[in-house]
Write the structure tokens for this entry.
Amino acid sequence: MSPNVRSSVGKPNDGAVLLCETQGQERAWRRDLADRHTANKPSRVRIGRIVVRSTSGRRGRDQQAERHVLEIGTWDGPYAFALEARGALVEATDIQDPDETGFNVAKRILDSKVNYTRVSVYDVGKHFPPASFDYILFLGVFYHLKYPVLAMEALSQLLKNGGRLFFEGECLLNHAQRADGRAPGWLDRGMISILGRSKYPVSLYYSGQYKDDDSNWHVPNLACLEEWMKTAGLQIESHRCDATSKGVNRFPTQRVSGVAVKAGEPRPEHPMVEDIATMLHRAKMVRAQREREQLTTWRSIVSRSLDRCLAPLGLRRTGYRITRAPR
Ligand SMILES: C[S@@+](CC[C@H](N)C(=O)[O-])C[C@H]1O[C@@H](n2cnc3c(N)ncnc32)[C@H](O)[C@@H]1O
């Protein structure tokens, strides 16, 4: 790290990494972080809750086991760097070019070893082996996805048994827009709050603008988020909802953050999907067995005719070797 660069990791609960060479830069960076990473997020993500080193278990009291952490949608990487500073082995991912976000600059200044993979959440399984992470951070991402359950399934496969998914995002609590973007009338507001806090799993879905952002798709209520997680083999352990009528821009804030534990395997879409997979697998096995048998038959036919040709020449075959036959 160059000597005139001051870097510090934010307080355990703020998840921010401050990078600066001058006080002016520090102020600008703080402002930028405040805008980009706290927008819509009053609950913040309590990164201090993640135990990045464990001193217990079979490895002995003095040996520390590093936690393997995957971050999805890392953007400038503040959480990834903060966790690395606390001793975790971190893999950061996002669909954005890390030279265009602040990630690579921050990485250089912090002299960080965090590895960045440019990949969409749906494809993480192509880059990392199954069951390889203790924790996955999935902050501010699920509502940006067209297929949130598919993403959660992909993440669940990467978690070790008992591993944990830290999630955060937009959640139906006190605000909805009509599909044409218009705000609800005052009569509808009561119904929206009831739906938001009810046990009926419902999600708003927008194919266009929600809160002036065309990358927002689903806004599930907590009951629906729980069902999505369950489908992916995850169980929500704890959560916190934040709703305020005044939020960022002109929209109310409604966010959820929490922790889910890997509690099983993703549920198949339909039992028949599994049946088809089993059937195809069985058919493949039968075909392979038939080919093996045909090969054996052909081999013995060829061997017998070869033996018949060799005998008059005074030669004999043992396996793949042809030698002179004893007189
Ligand atoms: C609202 S930002 C959240 C950034 C950061 N995780 C945080 O909480 O401050 C959403 C991030 O998710 C990323 N993202 C969007 N779609 C994604 C996808 N399909 N796979 C991975 N990352 C995605 C975006 O590039 C962006 O960096």
